[in-house]
Amino acid sequence: MTYGIVIVSHVPEIAAGLPKLLTQVAAHIDITHAGGTDDNDIGTSMLKISSAFDENTADELLAFYDLGSAKMNLEMAIEMADKPVHLYNTALIEGAYTAATLLEAGVSLPDVEKQLKPLVIK
């Protein structure tokens, strides 16, 4: 079983930039992203999110997002995904960074999720 990470941001540059940071600590984890609307404006796109799911070679995905409205598009994309996707409502950078470093170290998904709990936004 392999795990990958998907980053979703309203800003295309944030979506593309965060994986650059994460690959410094998780070179063997597939990290894909979706940022902005279909016209690359501020917002999110279910089609871009679905493409990020499809492009990720992992068997199972952990998805992180920046703002609550991205959650709606993520949930729609998850319903149509061909692989399991776990959605996390954490601080984007801290949550994705924590997951990436732990997955790179071979930590199990349940243990990764335990470490993410303190980062959940209530």
TrEMBL record:
It comes from the Bacteria. It catalyses: dihydroxyacetone + phosphoenolpyruvate = dihydroxyacetone phosphate + pyruvate. GO terms for cellular component: membrane. Residues 2-122 form the PTS EIIA type-4 domain. Keywords: Transferase. InterPro entries: DhaM, DhaM_N, PTS_EIIA_man-typ, PTS_EIIA_man-typ_sf. GO terms for biological process: glycerol catabolic process; phosphoenolpyruvate-dependent sugar phosphotransferase system. It is an enzyme of class 2 (transferase). Its EC number is 2.7.1.121. One of its GO terms (molecular function) is phosphoenolpyruvate-glycerone phosphotransferase activity. Component of the dihydroxyacetone kinase complex, which is responsible for the phosphoenolpyruvate (PEP)-dependent phosphorylation of dihydroxyacetone. DhaM serves as the phosphoryl donor. Is phosphorylated by phosphoenolpyruvate in an EI- and HPr-dependent reaction, and a phosphorelay system on histidine residues finally leads to phosphoryl transfer to DhaL and dihydroxyacetone. NCBIfam families: dha_pts. Homodimer. The dihydroxyacetone kinase complex is composed of a homodimer of DhaM, a homodimer of DhaK and the subunit DhaL. PANTHER family: PEP-DEPENDENT DIHYDROXYACETONE KINASE, PHOSPHORYL DONOR SUBUNIT DHAM. This is phosphoenolpyruvate--glycerone phosphotransferase. The lineage of its organism: Bacteria, Bacillati, Bacillota, Bacilli, Lactobacillales.
